[in-house]
Amino acid sequence: MLYLLELSLQSESGFALVQELLSNVLIKFIAWAVLAGLLYHLIAGMKHLLMDLGFGETLRGGFVGACITLALSAAAIIVAGVWIW
Fold this sequence. Notes:
The chain is mostly helical.
């Protein structure tokens, strides 16, 4: 991903090359997979910050927090997939 960013910022032809590469299904899938990991990590990190503030520290609260994290992550990953494709 950093290589594509660097290539797109080098020149106008580099930007055109990145646009061409991103039309490839495999590259789109890789970008989606990286973005999915980042989105899950972001949402799980916010859950942990809330737990540090004292919310959801019980067994039941942990279970509910995990379910909410998975649901929000799934929704964000689907939206990211729609955005990429």
